[in-house]
Amino acid sequence: MKSLPSPLIKICGLTRTSDVLSVASAGAHAVGINLVPSSPRCVSRDVAIDLCECARNAGLVTFAVVRNMGVSELQDLLAQVDFDWVQLHGEESPTLISACGNRGIVKALSWSGREIEAQVAAEWKRHLMKESQQRPCAMLVDAYAPNQGGGTGRQARWDLLWPRPDCLDGLPLILAGGLKPDNVASAIRQTRCAGVDTASGVETAPGLKSDALIRQFVQSAQQAFQH
Q1: Looking at residue 112, what is its pLDDT?
Q2: Where are the domains of the chain?
Q3: Which residues touch 118 (CB under 8 Å, ≥6 apart)?
């Protein structure tokens, strides 16, 4: 079980081992591997195995990005692919926690100011706070995208994240949604997040990362976290 690097810089939606190596070389800490069938960044389990092995050898933490998987399907995935963390990016029930084994858990939430979002966050916070005594846990805030779940390039409501709402307080908060090299520093300063996560913000096309953009993103995030 791997703890969450603090602060965390994560690049999500990796599809090529060459991009995994770019992430490691740039100084980021983690990669997200997308297994959501509707996503343009979704990879097969065989590719996920190769990406995880490459990431592990490069010293990176790996996240399985899943959405609304059933218990047996998730258990089967994690038996085949040795992820460090599970990122739940749908409308999952906290009962799915038991299917994650001893892996770290991050629950992704949209954050657009809707009351239902605060209710869902509060429910998950109760469960994750209990789980955090046994394993690392965190919350990830993304833009509201009911059909895609993430990776849209839209921004979450940063202005609603500081001061930190009670329903999000007490666990590390990872910020996602529309983060790019030219806005990630501002986002970090405005939200005081514990980590940042980007997919489309460092791409030339969905799933195809740019080495130059990755380096710019990581450098901007590093500088912001140091101040």
Answers
A1: 87
A2: 8-225
A3: 165, 167
Phi and psi (nearest 5°) for 219? -65, -45
Taking residue 129's Cβ as centre, other Cβ atoms within 10 Å add up to 12
Say how far apart CA 227 and CA 223 lie, in whole Å. 7
| CATH number for the segment(s) 8-225 | 3.20.20.70
Amino acid letter at 191? T
Per the CB < 8 A criterion, the answer to whether 196 and 10 are in contact is yes
The three-class DSSP label of residue 203 is strand
Does the pLDDT at position 146 exceed 60? no
Question: Residue written as tokens 């258990």?
Answer: 75
**Could you tell me how far CA 92 lies from the centroid of its own chain?**
15
Q: Per-residue pLDDT tens for 69-108?
A: 999 999 999 999 999 999 999 999 999 999 999 999 999 9
**Whole-number Cα distances in Å, 114 to 64, 125, 140, 181, 205:** 27, 17, 16, 28, 31
- Judge contact between 140 and 107, C-beta under 8 A: yes
* CB proximity list for 17: less than 8 A, separation 6 or greater: 50, 51, 54
Percent of the chain that is helix, strand, coil (3-state, to 5): 40, 20, 40
